[in-house]
Amino acid sequence: MSTAVAQKRGLAATIWDYLTTVDHKKIALLYLYSGGFFFLIGGLEAMLIRIQLMKPDNNFISAGLYNEMITMHGTTMIFLAAMPLIFALMNAVVPLQIGARDVAFPFLNSLGFWLFFFGGILLNVSWFTGGAPDAGWTNYAPLSTTSPGHGVDYYVMGLQISGAGTLIAGINFLVTIINMRAPGMTYMRMPLFTWSTFVTSALILFAFPALTVGLFLMMFDRMFGSAFFDVALGGNVIIWEHLFWIFGHPEVYILILPLFGAFSDIFSTFSRKRLFGYSAMVFATVLIGFLGFMVWAHHMFTVGMGPIANSIFAVATMAIAVPTGIKIFNWLFTMWGGQIKMTSAMLWSVAFIPSFTIGGMTGVMLAAAAADFQYHDTYFVVGHFHYVIVGGVVFGIFAGLHYWWPKMFGKVLNEKLGKLAFWPFFIGFHLTFFIQHFLGLMGMPRRYWVFLEGQGLETGNLISTIGAFFMAIGTVIFLINIVYTAIKEPKVGGDPWDARTLEWSIPSPPPHYNFVQTPLVRGLDPLWVEKMDGKKGMTPAEPLGDIHMPNGSILPFMMSLGMFIAGFGFIYQVDNSSWLIAVFIGMGITLGSMLTRSLKDDLGHHIHKEELEADIKKGVGK
Amino acid sequence: MSHDDVLNPKQMPHDPEKATLEGKNKFLGFWFFLGGETVLFASLFGTYLALNGSTQGENTPENLFGLELVFIMTMLLLTSSLTSVYAMYHMKNHDFGKMQLWLVITVALGLAFLGFEIYEFYHYIHEYDFTFRSSAFGSAFYTLVGFHGGHVLFGLCWITALIIRNQKRGLNLYNAPKYYTASLYWHFIDVVWVFIFTVVYLMGKVG
Ligand code: HEM
Ligand SMILES: [Cu+2]
């Protein structure tokens, strides 16, 4: 409905609608489009890196540009592609899975998105203003504090702004899941995707502030002359490493856990079985989240923390493999004896299992602190984390998109093209990264601009580059599929997969209030429970009545725009103090918008019973 | 619940801050926010503890800090926490006038605290030439204490805005959660200060 109406209203009205929307389904689309856009930029950067490393002593891009590429590739992929794509899925699905009409804080939901968006844009503006950040995505001091130009300043301000958005989104999902569940949706009946969103949000809440502080210290050192990382004045560069990884290790679980949840839902749907070991899966998710905070120093084994600290962190790290193993076996047992349907979503999910397991295995190898002295900062580490991040997170995003695409857009992505995109990507992925483990073991350091001839590194690097092209082909086919589906594929109903959870009990895409009547949940996999009882849909938990909905607002956009402007001011006031004007204007806009929000009443609006009855006549609700 | 029930409730419930779903959400969300703030300050404390010995042989915690001033500041802030409790007590009694009065007192105490803090920083900079840039200790000190001071300033602006905005219309189910979260924030700032007093000033003088 929304697109047809929008076309009548014209482009300007549609843009205004998206700038002011607080509807979680529209915010999901905003996250999807901008995350997808950054994914393509990050992918392009990766291709340039691989072309440079295609042959020894290559001079395809300059050394300085190469440093910018690797930095921006990592930063973009983690913060601007993976995170928002995950938030796209969470926003599209979680409120529906718990039977809610919106998230707990619709206004903050929109604010979280716009902060992320402007932070990402700020970071990428650096390409056009004299050079992108070039100190690696980990931005270690003193490399970062002494990096000339403003590249690292953009890193600091861009991540600070988008990080604030992430934190807000995390709090929003925590409260949504605790307070907004439909009657009967107890904790132990929540789908695994909701559970993992819950745990992930807790990780965001407790991990991101450490990055916030690290970025503040970096900002003060670079822009205001403080001495946190200036050894000459008593500073200590290791503080950055600790703060970064106290955030950074939980961050890798923030990335993977939601997709663990998505895989769980997908395996169970396409095996037509309830998830094997549901409570063990919940327990393992929580345990991984908890242990994820105890292991950050495994990134710092070679810093010189001493054998005791190294041993403790090594053991804690290896312990995480246990709950992860529990999950792998539960997925296998879910499929065992099921009526498996190999849809594209299922294909990505099945491919995830061996790929991710290899990544987990190299992880345990890396966790052996003594051996890590050999692996550290070589391509072995690059191989490890791409196996978990691409084989886990990216596969999961593809799987999740295939699975929930009909709920978001009302159409199933073309299955043939879906599989056609999968194979080159899957083969390319293993070609690219498997060989990198061996390059690493042979001593090839990561982040080097060139490698030399005659050291046995030529073949491996060439294979890796060829693999990268296969992955690019797969991605392009996926994009083609999106366009093709939008034009050619027919509309589908609310439940195209014969699925089990609440989001499939309402139309695709759902009306903006989601549920005409809040559903009554009677067990795990609530829709399946009703189907087994011979019912067509959910039993309502309330009579038909007025629905209370939040109002849209432009203020989140304005607040984020203010931060964006202030960001430039902070970066350039070092050169010329008149840029402080930009800081004042920007912060003025942000704080003024906050004050407006605080002072102006905004009670939302009601959708009246009559409108709902009219909608039902038109077919909504069943 | 209709808008009128929220803005002009016929009968105020005992916990007006949690009477609506929005209120409940705000209440819980704010607690989570404070959890994140805890990590923020924990990181700042960690940094401070790593750098408080890096004085470069110049101004050290022992010769800089004067406990008398900090003790007065501590008393001011602790008292302001107490007065904000009184305010919330009157909110639950639905006595809007008294609630506003106690909040005004809270703001006054907070302002006094902030005044002393500004004086303290001014004093260090002009008498001791101890700045944000003089040593890693200087950077860590001003950042930790300054972040807290910034929080105090934000809290003062927030509570003042609430007092003025609602002066004419009194308490309702829409603004009660706002007052309540502001008071939670104020307590949190107070707790952080207790840690600053202990870790920065007491340990700086004694340890
Ligand atoms: C069984 C689970 C895992 C273990 C035992 C493990 C262990 C490790 C260790 C010890 C390192 C440090 C290697 C070094 O720098 O020398 C490392 C690096 C890394 N791991 Fe894992 N890991 C595991 C799972 C994951 C997952 C699930 C992800 C992400 C989704 C991940 C992402 C990363 C990243 C990004 C790095 C490299 C960061 C950098 O230096 O740039 N790991 N891992
Ligand atoms: Cu890690």
From TrEMBL, chain A:
Pfam families linked: COX1
Matching PANTHER family: CYTOCHROME C OXIDASE SUBUNIT 1
GO terms for biological process, alphabetical: electron transport coupled proton transport; oxidative phosphorylation; respiratory electron transport chain
Residue intervals passing through the bilayer: 28-49, 69-94, 106-128, 154-180, 192-220, 243-263, 275-296, 308-333, 345-370, 385-405, 417-442, 462-484, 554-572, 578-596
PROSITE patterns noted in UniProt: COX1, COX1_CUB
Broadest EC class assigned to this enzyme: translocase
GN (gene name): ctaD
CC per GO annotation: plasma membrane
Molecular-function GO term, any one: metal ion binding
Protein's membrane topology: Multi-pass membrane protein
Keyword annotations: Cell membrane, Copper, Electron transport, Heme, Iron, Membrane, Metal-binding, Respiratory chain, Translocase, Transmembrane, Transmembrane helix, Transport
The protein, known as: Cytochrome c oxidase subunit 1
Record's subcellular location: Cell membrane
Catalysis: reaction(s): 4 Fe(II)-[cytochrome c] + O2 + 8 H(+)(in) = 4 Fe(III)-[cytochrome c] + 2 H2O + 4 H(+)(out)
Pathway: Energy metabolism; oxidative phosphorylation
From TrEMBL, chain B:
Entry's Gene Ontology cellular component terms: plasma membrane
Heme-copper oxidase subunit III family profile domain location: 28-205
Keyword Transmembrane among record annotations: yes
Lineage start: Bacteria, Bacillati, Bacillota, Bacilli, Bacillales
Annotated PANTHER family: CYTOCHROME C OXIDASE SUBUNIT 3, CYTOCHROME C OXIDASE SUBUNIT III
SUPFAM superfamilies registered for this protein in UniProt: Cytochrome c oxidase subunit III-like
Species whose genome carries this gene: Halobacillus locisalis
Protein name: Cytochrome (Ubi)quinol oxidase subunit III
Membrane topology: Multi-pass membrane protein
Any Pfam family the entry gives: COX3
Subcellular location: Cell membrane
